[in-house]
From TrEMBL, chains A, B:
Native source species: Acipenser oxyrinchus oxyrinchus
Subcellular location(s) of the protein: Cytoplasm, Cytoskeleton, Cilium basal body; Cytoplasm, Cytoskeleton, Microtubule organizing center, Centrosome
Protein name stated in the entry: Centrosomal protein 43
Family, similarity comment: Belongs to the CEP43 family.
Oligomeric form and interacting partners: Homodimer. Part of a ternary complex that contains CEP350, CEP43 and MAPRE1. Interacts directly with CEP350 and MAPRE1. Interacts with CEP19. Interacts (via N-terminus) with CEP350 (via C-terminus).
The protein's role, per its UniProt record: Required for anchoring microtubules to the centrosomes. Required for ciliation.
């Protein structure tokens, strides 16, 4: 009982800090792009209030621009996170076209 | 009325295809890592059934290994997506330590 009142919403604090950084907002925006891309409407409906970001998130176009991703027919066929992952991964596997 | 029965769950099909690729599963696992990192339990509770992946997703450790990310104190303080984004972004801004 006495513990309850002392319980600080730690996750809110760390998330709030994260979303107050430019990179943090971009990451959350990438996540939002994924949910929108696959029409994960139910997840989106919970994600938005749960992250509770007053300023909203960046659009896909803005994120792509910020990350220097030039959208092509190929990149448009997937969430931006895929493109980012392909870039970031070590190039030790030759066969990841698509 | 007649349209309803013809309505195919397009998003499920495209998501299913995506999750059947190795990269797709990694991307979804990165997203799951983000939700877990920030204890976004409500979003997670909707995300898991909505993506409906029978095989489950990769753990953070597995994703880090797969992407060649060596976890340090710094990387452990954020979702893996942040590390990936830092890697993938063009190096035209010098000041993104953290």
């Amino acid at each position: 009982q006495e513990k309850v009142e002392n319980k600080t919403p730690l996750f809110n604090e760390s998330l709030k800090k994260f979303l107050n950084t430019k990179d943090g907002r971009l990451v959350a925006s990438l996540l939002s792009d994924f949910l929108q891309f696959f029409n994960l409407d139910f997840t989106m409906a919970v994600f938005q209030p749960e992250i509770n970001t007053l300023n909203g998130l960046e659009s896909r176009d803005a994120v792509a621009r910020e990350l220097g991703i030039l959208e092509t027919e190929a990149t448009k066929g997937a969430p931006l996170m895929l493109e980012l992952m392909k870039r970031g991964r070590h190039k030790d596997r030759g066969s990841s076209f698509a």
